[in-house]
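Here is the promised in-class demo. Please do not try to memorize the tokens; focus on the logic of going from shape to residues.
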């Protein structure tokens, strides 16, 4: 859905413990303020690598450029990073400012992140000394707590693509039928929490009681990466661990989790812009090269040991609203780069597939088409290359979309579904009834395809649209159509 409502939502105000962050004790003579301080954190860790972050605070005169240096002692090696130019020589790591964040006023802070490899044995030792522009920062540290391991597969099926079907480890065909659980894309960037409403075991059990077998979880790249504009309680390690916990709960109830990138960085003020903000506070026409490949490298590393987790690369691309021709729009979609009408460097779908597969992850990957994932007319022509063959076409449809009738589905969706699995990641209507989604579900049922209703949140069903009126699973007049249908299908 393109614009989740912001008003009338209950903020999640419970404090979240900051896991993995180390702030050194400051010891200076006569209470003097240290020249600089550094917070170093391990925000995610897997068998042969980890995601880390640094927050630098300058307490002396303003600087127009900065360079942070520190040493690793456990065989770690930085492989990529963001918000700084990262390099490593031997054990010494250097993070130098980018062109857009070089100025650091007195008392100002800047955050940067990285992904690194490590031997996977022994301790992922934390650096003990940091220097900013050659000056030692009074920020010694002790080893930080290691984040919990990725969730076990549980009872959720391990999935892969076979022809135009999704199948489990035994080769049995699986359809993804369920709901979206919105909140993780907007609460954190708005400083109001991580999820909108409860996501404890009882809340997830209520979804399973509808006989859903899949839950799609929208995410925010700035929150996952822990960028400076995100409150620490809702970003970085806290956000990642909250997502991992939700994924584990979904799997524990036998349901497939789809982790999906919904809101991203990059300023877009053109046709159909959702906001003028450069930050990930609304939906952008395409993912950005600055952060999105790093986001997917981190997410893929986090879940690559769990074939029950599906990756949905980008919610609803709409480069067609920015570019002047359909060909330009599809080229932008697949290849990224400099796209007409979009002012930031775009990460194409191929870039994101490459980021995921570069980690060794073989998880099923979903890719939506143009026009907010409502147009798959040239998806097969521009489909990205996936060396694992685990690529799925994603489609969204609401009663107000252009391709919202059987004629269009027969002409544009059926050819795609004949070659690759097709998942309608979002279906819905803004009528507070279910006549339209009933038609959608019948067309998809007749062809053995997958679909998920938007959304499992207690919003106004005429504007959300919302499936439920409370988190025990009481359906709205719109949601009752999906609930009764899932129960009829899955008993």
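The designed amino acids, position by position:
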């Amino acid at each position: 859905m393109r614009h989740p409502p912001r008003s009338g939502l209950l903020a999640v105000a419970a404090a979240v413990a900051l896991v993995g962050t180390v702030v050194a004790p400051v010891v200076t003579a006569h209470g003097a303020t240290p020249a600089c301080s550094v917070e170093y954190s391990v925000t995610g860790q897997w068998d042969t690598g980890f995601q880390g972050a640094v927050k630098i605070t300058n307490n002396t005169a303003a600087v127009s450029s900065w360079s942070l240096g520190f040493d690793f002692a456990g065989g770690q090696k930085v492989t990529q990073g963001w918000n700084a130019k990262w390099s490593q020589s031997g054990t010494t790591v250097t993070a130098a400012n980018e062109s857009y964040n070089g100025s650091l006023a007195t008392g100002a802070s800047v955050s940067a992140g990285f992904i690194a490899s490590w031997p996977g044995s022994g301790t992922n030792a934390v650096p003990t000394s940091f220097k900013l522009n050659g000056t030692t920062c009074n920020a010694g540290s002790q080893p930080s707590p290691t984040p919990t391991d990725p969730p076990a597969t549980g009872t959720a099926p391990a999935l892969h693509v076979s022809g135009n079907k999704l199948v489990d480890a035994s080769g049995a065909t699986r359809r993804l039928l369920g709901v979206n659980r919105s909140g993780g894309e907007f609460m954190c960037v708005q400083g109001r929490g991580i999820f909108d409403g409860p996501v404890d075991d009882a809340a997830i059990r209520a979804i399973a009681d509808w006989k859903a077998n899949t839950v799609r979880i929208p995410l925010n790249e700035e929150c996952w990466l822990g960028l400076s504009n995100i409150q620490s309680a809702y970003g970085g390690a806290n956000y990642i661990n909250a997502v991992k916990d939700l994924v584990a709960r979904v799997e524990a109830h036998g349901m497939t989790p789809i982790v999906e990138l919904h809101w991203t960085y990059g300023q877009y003020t053109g046709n159909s812009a959702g906001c003028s903000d450069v930050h990930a506070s609304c939906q952008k026409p395409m993912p950005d090269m600055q952060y999105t490949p790093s986001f997917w490298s981190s997410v893929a590393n986090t879940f690559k040991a769990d074939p029950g987790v599906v990756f949905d690369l980008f919610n609803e691309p709409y480069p067609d609203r920015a570019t002047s021709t359909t060909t330009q729009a599809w080229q932008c979609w697949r290849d990224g780069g400099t796209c007409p009408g979009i002012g930031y460097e775009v990460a194409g779908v191929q870039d994101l597939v490459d980021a995921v597969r570069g980690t060794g992850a073989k998880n099923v990957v979903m890719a939506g088409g143009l026009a907010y994932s409502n147009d798959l007319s040239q998806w097969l022509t521009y489909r990205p290359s996936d060396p694992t063959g685990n690529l799925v076409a994603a489609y969204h449809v609401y009663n107000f979309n252009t391709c919202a009738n059987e004629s269009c589905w027969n002409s544009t969706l059926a050819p795609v579904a004949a070659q690759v699995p097709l998942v309608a990641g979002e279906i819905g209507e803004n009528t507070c009834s279910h006549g339209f989604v009933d038609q959608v579900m019948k067309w998809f049922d007749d062809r053995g395809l997958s679909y998920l209703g938007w959304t499992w949140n207690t919003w106004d069903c005429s504007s959300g649209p919302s499936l439920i009126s409370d988190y025990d699973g009481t359906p709205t007049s719109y949601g009752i159509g999906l609930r009764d249908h899932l129960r009829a299908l899955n008993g």
